[in-house]
Amino acid sequence: MLSKSQAKVFFLVATLGFSGVFLALTFDTMRQIPEQTNSAEISESALRGRHIWDRKNCMGCHTILGEGAYYAPELTRAVERRGEEWLRIFLRDPEAMYPGRRRMIQYNFTEDEITDVIAFLEWIGNIDANGFPFDPDMAPTAAIAAAGAEAPEVLQAAPTYYRNVCQSCHAVEGFGGNTGPALDGVATRFNEAELHQWLADPQAVRPGTTMPNLNLAEDVRTELVTWLLTLD
Ligand code: HEC
Ligand code: HEC
């Protein structure tokens, strides 16, 4: 049993001790906030993007940092997951990426507004949220770029357009997205003419397909087909 004075000392030491620990941890958290939120990197463009985000109520369907509605995909790491060029095509016209199933609103953004929205999403994606959300299930374009030499050799030879746009939907040797099928061995399923036709107008080849028509310029298409033919 503690005597009355011992109890008093115990109370004071414990209370002051733990208050000290609490204050130190609070101070430490406050100290880390600017670094974790990346506040130095909020550009004018990201700020404008944030206003668009609020004004258009994107959170009515999406979450960022876990906040918002669960109708549509989490967007905290959208830039890492999809890459800037993919997002640009999508935000210009969501149905261009998801033919026949437009569930996202067509906002008719200007190119500048799209730049701002992407800047905002990029800033959000760089917040250090202690690992939240978990790694995207689609291997992120940025991570593949960062992996550099570790990416399979065949991908290092891929055209830029493939890496910037196609890859966030398709995987090769396990690297890439899973919105579309893996493209390993695609040269055994399609010949050169078929690949050209497919990339020029997927709907014409397979009506109702969910592969987007990306309106590729002919030289880009040729470069892609030449490379796809190496996947055998
Ligand atoms: C009515 C609900 C709704 C609203 C509002 C909405 N979205 Fe979406 N969004 C979707 C759906 C659904 C998808 C998934 C694509 C699909 O299934 O068509 C999507 C997909 C996206 C994607 C691509 C994510 C990925 O990795 O595939 C981005 C980026 C995006 N939305 C940004 C926005 C922004 C920015 C706003 C506000 C300006 C917004 N969305 C408002 C429903 C919505
Ligand atoms: C928005 C996601 C998306 C993007 C971007 C995309 N694809 Fe696809 N792709 C798909 C889907 C989904 C299918 C399956 C379509 C079907 O079965 O009807 C597909 C099918 C294919 C096929 C046929 C594969 C097979 O074995 O049947 C090829 C080849 C292909 N895509 C190449 C490409 C190339 C090259 C690009 C870039 C120029 C690209 N895709 C961009 C979603 C995408």
Query: In CATH terms, what is the fold-level topology of the largest domain?
Result: Cytochrome Bc1 Complex, Chain D, domain 2
Task: Describe the largest sheet.
Answer: 2 strands, antiparallel
Q: Major sheet: order of its strands?
A: 1-2
* Mean pLDDT over all positions: 87
Counting DSSP H or I runs of 4 or more residues, the number of helices is 13
Present as ligands are: heme C
Question: How much helix is in the residues?
Answer: 40-55%
Order of helices and strands: HHEEHHHHHHHEEHHHH
How much is the radius of gyration in Å? 25 Å
Q: What proportion of the residues form beta strands (DSSP E)? A: under 5%
Terminal Cα separation, in Å? 80 Å
Overall domain count: 3
Structural class: mainly alpha
Contiguous low-pLDDT stretches (5 residues minimum) are none
The number of distinct β-strands equals 4
Q: What is the CATH class name of the largest domain?
A: Mainly Alpha
Q: Tell me what the CATH architecture of the largest domain is.
A: Orthogonal Bundle
CATH homology superfamily of the largest domain = Cytochrome c-like domain
